[in-house]
Specification:
Length: about 425
Amino acid sequence: MSAARRILIDGYNLGLEKGTGVATYARNLSYELHNLGHAASVLYGNAAATSRDPLLSEIAFFDGETAKRGGTLDLIGQAAHALRAPLGQKAVEVPITGRVISRQFAARLPRHDKIFSAADVFRRSQNGFALWGQLNHVALPQRVDLAHWTYPLPIRIRGVPNIYTLHDIVPLRLPFTTLDRKRQYLALLRKLARTADHIVTVSEHSKRDLIEVLGIAPDRITNTYQSVDIPEALRRKTDEQTADEVESLFPVHYKQYYLFWGSIEPKKNIGRMIEAYLVSKVDAPLVIVGAQAWKSEGELQLLKSLAGREGGRRQVIQLPYAPFALLVSLIRGAKAALFPSLYEGFGLPALEAMSLGTPVICSDTSSLPEVAGDAAIMVDPYDTAALTAAIRQVDADADLRAEMSLRGLAQAERFSPAAYRERLDALYRRF
């Protein structure tokens, strides 16, 4: 194991209310840093948390309303900071003393030794890069030994190694599925490819993309994969407890519904998934847990027309959001998880389902074959008929579902926290 060091990660995706796959990555990374014996610092961009009054900073950090800004003055301020971007920016420490009761956010906070904040640092850095093509150098109040950015951000800490996780390059491979400014995104990736001390990614497929599309040398990229760490208290729930929870809260029966969870966005292939489910004519409802992300108007209109439809089969139920503990119960209670994504850098939901013993039907593209192995039924995500056939096959065969459950549990062990920790340790020993 590498010697204990002070490692900074960013809080760009670590919102306090809801999580995403990238947020889960950052949060899990913070816990593994602790497990490896390192001190983890997290840099946030909460403008309200940079007060000179320590108590006010702590209050503002947990008060989402104080961080919301807007209007003409905000635009003027952003423009002014973009013009000064090459001069860099200073961060301050946010004291977390316990004077503010923060248990509400316990499941969302990363494991941290220090929390820093630089006012609107992520937005200012992106605006500055768009104007100058330069990275924003952030000065911290205390020295760290390494900065590990969990997303392609135009930020750098001077005097220490800076490594960047690039989960995928979906905006370049499937540009019609995202709202990114593609010219700026490509310029940033090319800048990081030249200047980063190292690039980290989460699958061999993503690594190949970075090599072939961006021309990054293979020895400058490390694939650490990802892991799932579901609290033991949630795993210890009996089938009866899980069934009671699910059936008390939703109009479904234990092991008698299909489940999708994730952002409703084009790459998730929601429209084809709903079409395949309806054509399959299975009796089990389809539960979709996810809120609108971007470019999802068509899928949402389809959901609106189907949600809550009575009559047993062909019922589609949408939940905009489920707290993590409830989501775990929903995954455990599903007959199978559907994940026919067009493209994934890793595909965390497939691993979450397998680790909980739930059969998986997923795509045969991008990174998903690496994650699912021989445990899932994989189909061409553009082939609605193939997805329909897979749903019918799994629905009709209890023995197949039992076999997929066992294979999934074994496959998930390849991505255990311990295995992930070993890969991270090997990465950090390089610096």
